[in-house]
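Write out the bound-state structure for heme C.
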Amino acid sequence: MKRIFLVALLLLPALLAVQCTQESPKTAEEEKAPLESPLQRGEYLVNVMGCDDCHSPKIMTAHGPEPDPARRLSGHPSQVPLPAITDKKMVAPGEWVLFHPMSTAAVGPWGTSFSANLTPDDTGIGTWSLEQFRKALTQGKSKGLDDGRILLPPMPWPQYAHLKDEDIVAIFTYLKSITPINNPVPAPQPPVM
Ligand code: HEC
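---
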C-alpha cells in the first residue's frame, strides 16, 4: 500500500508537467497559423455566401429546388428560354421583380439579368486572372475589365466589395478548382417597358 502511494507521489510532478504544457498560452505564431488552406476557405465561403442560390441551375427535390451537382455554378443554362411576360405592367419600376424558378435569371427595372458561369471553362472564369475576379467583385465590373459595364442586380457585389483580399483569393482558388462546364450564359436584355 505504502509502495503504491510512493509511486503515485513520484508520478505527480510528471503529470503536472504534462498538464502545464497543455495549458501553456499559444505563441503569436500559433495564434496566426491558418486553420485551413485557401482552397478549403474558398469552398467554405462559396457555400455560406450563397453563390449557388443564383449561379447554380436547380433540380426539384422533395425539399424543393436544390443546386444540380452536375451543373454546379455554371450560371443560367443557355438552352433554357424564359417564359413570356404576359403582363408587362407587373415588372414596371416599383412593381414586382420576377425570378426564374431556378433563380438563375431575374427581371426587374434593370431589365433581364442572367447569372454568370463561375466554373473554370472558357465560357466561365477559365481565362480570368485574379485581378479580373477582384475587379468584378469589388468594383462590379463585368468580366473584371476596366471598360466592363457595371454588373446588374441581383448580383450583390456592393456587399462583396467589403470582402478581405485573402477571402477573394480563396474564393477564386476554389472556383478555379471546380469542374469546368461549357455554358455560354445569355447577355442581359433591356427593360421590357
Ligand atoms: C442574388 C443572386 C446572386 C448571388 C447570391 C451571387 N451572384 Fe454573382 N451574379 C449574379 C447575376 C445575376 C450576375 C450577372 C450580372 C450581369 O450580367 O450584369 C452575376 C455575376 C457575377 C460575376 C461576374 C461575371 C461576369 O461575367 O462578369 C461574378 C464574378 C460573380 N457573379 C461571382 C459571384 C460569387 C463568387 C458569388 C458568391 C460569393 C455570387 N456571385 C453570388 C447573381 C448573384
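---
Residues 46, 49-51, 53-55, 113, 115-116, 118, 136, 142-143, 151-152, 154-156, 171, 188 surround heme C (CB under 6 Å).
The mean pLDDT is 90.
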